[in-house]
Specification:
heterodimer; A: 220 residues; alpha+beta; Alpha-Beta Plaits; 2 domains; four-stranded antiparallel β-sheet; 7 helices; 4 strands; rod-shaped; B: mainly alpha; Amino acid/polyamine transporter I; two-stranded antiparallel sheet; 26 helices; 67% helix
């Protein structure tokens, strides 16, 4: 690991940028492979690092369509077992000059999805510290789903109410024609009288109130 | 279930199709939201298993006697609450009116809770659940600030559901979505009430039994969750010392009283539709015991799930600490796990304690998470919804949970509304031309319009006020006068005769001792203790204020004076009819001492019905 570190920190033949001193133009990257993939986690080795540099070069090419970035333009240093490291992008024309932070940020943002997918990771497990992930556009359905459920429930309930009211109204009209109109007991017996319930009539046929034993106290 | 035709006026009173409907309706009325979200909370803060002792004592000496009394008197006199108390003595007519007013006020705010349950139910059919993540703000740069500061669950409850204002003085406007949900809730209540107990009797087959099914499913599911056993052990581990505190006994007595839905008049109305020869003693004991058993049964899945939530939170706390350590010390990914966290922390502290201190790691303690208790709407809409997110298949559990809450509340609403409708019918306030369906619709509409108060921005604060003041002291007073009315005015001997007529045996010594001495004494003590406690604490309320310094903690604010006046009115207005009617009857009797009172029943409690005027 240590020789690798040294190797990576050694300036390539043409470039003269020292990653360690160019922090202001570099970004720290942090990967959490085991957290994201669990059993299917791969080891982080030199080939993976090469892939990373290649994807960043691709992102820079995509963003800046005129320049032809190479893998060697991506300089990496300070690798740790966490798997985190710093990288700097150098200009293809002048390897001594680092590309400014903003441009790198925009390039990474544009191709973030491709970079993530290359490593089977997500925005959370492949972090670019300082480049916040673009939040996914909220999916706004045409009608909020709760209104649909509400519509179904209220429709069913209202239909039920109407049905019950209509049936009881029809039944009452039919019974009114059939039964004898009871003569009204005009004595207010106060609260002694029982409740007139439609249901009782419905269940027990016609109830002729002409002979009702509901007068506890006959009039003197 | 034959009717004794000769003894009583042949009545057109509706009756239950069968005994099962009646029992299920009474059980449904008694078993309500409080069994699920109040009792487990009390159990938790009052030393777990030890709380069962004062609870069961209160059930036996206070709950069951009062329940038996209400069912017996309603069944014997076959009238709603106003009619019953007028029959016993015209001076007591106010008790019935008080019951009716309390039932109306409670029905108004209770249905708002059901509206909230419906709102959550409608939102449970989405993936992902809307309270699991923060919404993105307008320019898509981040999440809504209020949500980030608190939690997505809190944000969904306080902002997207209630749209709560910062304090009770700011009323805000009517939230149209809550109005829709409230209208739906009232429509559902109305459709069950359309044909009176005919439709209620059918509805309770579902609403009274479905919660038990869901609770069983939840028990099975919850016990397989990690951390469930921690929660249940925490719930049931008794702390015997806590029984020394008088607050425990007071809360046990009030809990059993409100849990059984006594003094609402609904139970009297329901039992008045029974045939006279029905064993109401057995009914009372069954209803009371099933109610308490349901409370205990419900606390098992609640606490299993709360234990699961505490464990999840504890693990998340550890995970975030692990992430901080991993990132700052560049340790390999997943080298620090929950199991070896402590050893890693020790070794890192030994080598580089300064950096570790700089990380400001939160101390993760499972006990602290278990201690986070909640009751009421906080339990259902914040704590439980958060737990449901972490369970696989969240939508199913959310839907089941909210349908269970809805049916628990709906069957209680039946009792509330019946406590309003039955006395009004008996008072013959309904004009003859109005069919009963229309009258029920009118009452439902009136309740809906009054309930719109709770759909405003400050609605939640008002609901808390109603909950604390309407459904508490007034009921204690009414229940006390019920006892006094039956034992004092009707007489224990006459009442014993009634019961012998209905059940075939006289009430035994235990019931008589309770009615005459123990229950009134207990009620008086509970009432006085309640007053004392209320007077000592200045009434305050927790307000959700995003501009508060310590946000997301709720800001504790005192009630303004005009609100406090309303609180006092809410206690006074329901119980005011009791003295007013008694005084009115007194005065009108004084002016009518010469006239023989043909129309009123003899108010003489010594009236021996052997000498009736019709012989």
């Amino acid at each position: 690991m240590f020789p690798l570190l040294l190797l990576l920190c050694l300036p390539p033949a043409l470039a003269a940028v020292d990653c360690n001193t160019e922090y202001k133009n570099g970004y720290q990257v942090r990967l959490s492979i085991k957290t994201a993939l669990g059993d299917q986690a791969y080891d982080w080795n030199e080939s993976e690092m090469f892939l990373f540099r290649a994807t960043i070069a691709f992102a820079m090419r995509k963003f800046n369509k005129t320049e032809a970035y190479e893998v060697s333009n991506i300089v990496v240093c300070n690798q740790t077992p966490r798997v985190s490291f710093w990288f700097i992008v150098t200009s293809p024309e002048d390897p001594a000059q680092a590309i400014s932070k903003n441009i790198v940020e925009q390039a990474v943002r544009e191709s973030r999805n491709r970079i993530n997918n290359a490593f089977l990771l997500t925005d959370k497990s492949l972090e670019f510290l300082g480049i916040p992930p673009t939040l996914a556009a909220p999916i706004i359905p045409a009608t909020p789903p709760w209104l649909i459920v509400f519509g179904v429930v209220i429709g069913a309930v209202c239909a039920g109410i109407v049905a019950l009211l209509v049936t009881s109204f029809v039944k009452r009209r039919r019974e009114k024609k059939a039964k004898v109109v009871p003569e009204e007991e005009d004595q207010a017996k106060g609260t002694d009288k029982a409740v007139t319930g439609e249901t009782f009539e419905d269940r027990n046929g016609v109830y002729n109130l002409g002979f009702a034993d509901d007068d506890r106290f006959t009039q003197l | 279930m034959a009717e004794s035709a000769g003894e009583k006026p042949a009545d057109e009173r509706p009756k239950w199709d069968n005994k099962v409907q009646y029992m299920l309706t009474c059980i449904g009325f008694a078993v309500g939201l409080g069994n699920v979200w109040r009792f487990p909370y009390l159990c938790q803060i009052y030393g777990g298993g030890a709380f069962l002792i004062p609870y069961l004592i209160a059930l036996v000496f206070e709950g069951l006697p009062l329940l038996y009394l209400e069912l017996a008197i309603g069944q014997r006199l076959r009238l709603g609450s106003i009619g019953v108390w007028n029959s016993i003595s015209p001076y007591l007519g106010g008790v019935g009116m008080a019951s009716m007013i309390v039932s109306f006020l409670v029905g108004v705010y209770y249905n708002t809770i059901l509206a909230w349950v419906l709102w959550y139910l409608f939102h449970s059919f989405q993936n992902p659940l809307p309270w699991s993540e923060c919404p993105v703000n307008d320019d898509r740069t981040g999440y809504v600030q209020e949500c980030v500061d608190s939690t997505p669950v809190n944000y969904f409850w306080y902002r997207q559901t209630l749209n709560v204002t910062a304090n009770i003085e700011t009323s805000g406007s009517l939230q149209w979505w809550l109005v829709l949900c409230l209208a739906t809730a009232w429509c559902i209540v109305y459709i069950c009430f359309i044909k009176g107990i005919e439709t209620i009797g059918k509805a309770v087959y579902v609403t009274a039994t479905f919660p038990y099914l869901v609770l069983t499913i939840f028990i099975v599911r919850a016990l397989t969750l990690p951390g469930a056993t921690d929660g249940i052990l925490y719930l049931f581990t008794p702390e015997w010392e806590i029984l020394m505190k008088p607050q425990v006994w007071l809360d046990a007595a009030t809990q059993i009283f409100f849990s059984l839905s006594l003094a609402f008049g609904g139970l009297i109305a329901f039992s008045s539709y029974n045939p006279q020869k029905n064993d109401c003693e057995r009914d009372a004991v069954i209803v009371g015991c099933i109610n308490s058993a349901t409370s205990i049964y419900a606390s098992i899945p609640i606490f299993a799930i709360l234990g699961f939530k505490a464990t999840s939170n504890y693990n998340s706390c550890l995970e975030s600490n692990i992430l901080s350590l991993t990132n700052s010390f560049d340790v390999g990914d997943q080298n620090i796990t929950i199991e070896n966290y402590n050893s890693w922390l020790d070794s890192l502290n030994r080598t580089d304690s300064v950096s570790v201190a700089r990380l400001n790691l939160t101390k993760c303690n499972l006990q602290t998470f278990l201690d986070q208790s909640a009751s009421g709407t906080g339990l259902a809409f914040i704590v439980f919804t958060e737990a449901v997110i972490s369970m696989p298949g969240s939508q199913v559990w959310a839907v089941l949970f909210f349908i269970m809450l809805f049916s628990l509340g709906l069957s209680s609403m039946f009792g509330n509304l019946e406590g309003v409708l039955a006395p009004l019918r008996d008072l013959k306030v309904v004009p003859k031309w109005m069919p009963p369906q229309l009258f029920t619709a009118f009452i439902a509409l009136l309740s809906f319009l009054v309930g719109l108060v709770f759909t405003m921005g400050s609605g939640n604060y008002w609901l808390e006020i109603f909950n604390n003041y309407v459904g508490s002291v007034s009921l204690l007073i009414i229940a006390f006068f019920e006892l006094v009315g039956v034992i004092g005015f009707r007489g224990i001997r006459q009442f014993g005769d009634d019961i012998e007529f209905m059940t075939g045996r006289r009430p035994n010594l235990f019931w008589k001792a309770c009615w005459l001495v123990i229950s009134p004494l207990l009620l008086l003590v509970v009432f006085l203790a309640y007053i004392v406690v209320q007077v000592q604490t200045t009434p305050t309320y927790p307000a959700w204020n995003p501009d508060y310094v310590d946000f997301p903690q709720t800001e504790v604010q005192p009630y303004p004076t005009w609100v406090f006046v309303i609180c006092v009115l809410l206690v006074a207005i329901p119980v005011a009819p009791i003295p007013i009617v008694a005084l009115y009857k007194c005065i009108s009797n004084l002016f009518r001492t010469t006239e023989t009172d043909v129309q009123n029943r003899p108010s003489n409690p010594y009236c021996n019905e052997g000498f009736d005027k019709d012989t």
